[in-house]
Amino acid sequence: MKGRILSGMRPTGRLHIGHLSVLENWVKLQEEYETYFMVADWHALTTAFDETEEIKGKIWDMLLDWLSVGIDPEKSVIFVQSHVKEHAELHLLFSMITPLSWLERCPTYKDQVQQFGEKGKDISTYGFLGYPLLQAADILIYRADTVPVGEDQLPHLELSREVARRFNHLYNARVFPEPKAKLSKLALLPGTDGRKMSKSYNNYISITADFEVISDKVRQMVTDPQRIRKTDPGNPEVCTVYLYHKIYNPVELEQYEADCRGGKIGCVACKKKLAAKMDEALKPIREKRNELEKNPDLIQDIITAGAEKARKEASITMEKVREVMKI
Ligand code: TRP
């Protein structure tokens, strides 16, 4: 029998190419697993409870991007968390059996409260403390056995395992499998300025950027600062453009590296080539997105059907949960 995967993302709006390796991984997983992909809008509320007017648009934009890269409603259950209220019920029931200390010791908790505090926002709320428990409910309600996550999410997954174990033990039942993390080696792409790619640094390229935007962003990339003239030998190890060539131009990589070191190719030409390669890679995504944008009814149908399928599966779990808890 196929394993079952659940994964999710908070709705951050349009995605950038830094997200692409995660999504391409999801696309592949669709072939090997039963896959559930969820837009975690309630999780977004834990920190953005005061910016709710933007959430609907962000959900929509992220969904369109998912579909544009090949997350396929024929293969996956694609849905929005808040459309399946059962998650909230399971979260509530879990809250009865989860010691506060399990949540307080989550490394992301104190960090985030402090970081937001420095920006003048108090997120030391009940909801934010419960963030990983809501995530446990998301996973366990589908009895998913596998969760593809980044390393930052490992403590959250550990909590899901502990909650599953505690529930099964307390009610002497085997309702929940202990989900395991699936860490995959993902290419980490820095932003155009060499720092972490992030919307707030404005150093990102959207996955649907057109050729002009791509070229513009690539032109701004930092190269070897020691290199002034084209004939100066370059050092690809300190060059962001080189890191991008690794991903977008693997076939010619060696040639470009040698030409850079030998002072045979200038940064302008090297960047032009990269922009052309990136455009080639992103073009099908862009075209798919344009097509999907013309058809909002189709998107609406996909998320309605996704919520129905998800709810059906979640309801089966909740019946078992209520039965073993005798409520
Ligand atoms: N916490 C995840 C993030 O910040 C989003 C998320 C919510 C999630 N529920 C999940 C991820 C369940 C995996 C499984 O990206």
Descriptive terms for the model:
14 helices, two-stranded parallel sheet, mainly alpha, 327 residues, Tyrosyl-Transfer RNA Synthetase, three-stranded parallel β-sheet
Structure commentary:
This protein has 327 residues and is mostly helical. It has two domains: 215 residues, HUPs (Rossmann fold, 3-Layer(aba) Sandwich), CATH 3.40.50; 91 residues, Tyrosyl-Transfer RNA Synthetase, CATH 1.10.240.10. It contains 14 helices and five strands. The strands form two sheets. Strands 1-2-3 form a three-stranded parallel sheet. Strand 1, helix 1 and strand 2 form a beta-alpha-beta unit. Helix 3 crosses helix 13 and helix 8 crosses helix 9. The two termini are 32 Å apart. The model has no long low-confidence stretch (mean pLDDT 96). The protein binds tryptophan. Tryptophan binds next to strand 1 and helix 8.
Number of domains: 2
Global mean pLDDT: 96
Ligands, ions, cofactors:
tryptophan
Level-2 CATH architecture of the largest domain: 3-Layer(aba) Sandwich
CATH-derived topology of the largest domain: Rossmann fold
Shape: elongated
- Looking at CATH, the homologous superfamily of the largest domain is HUPs
Strand order of the largest sheet: 1-2-3
Oligomeric status: single chain
Number of helices: 14
What pattern of helices and strands is seen along the backbone? EHEHHEHHHHHEHEHHHHH
Low-confidence stretches: none
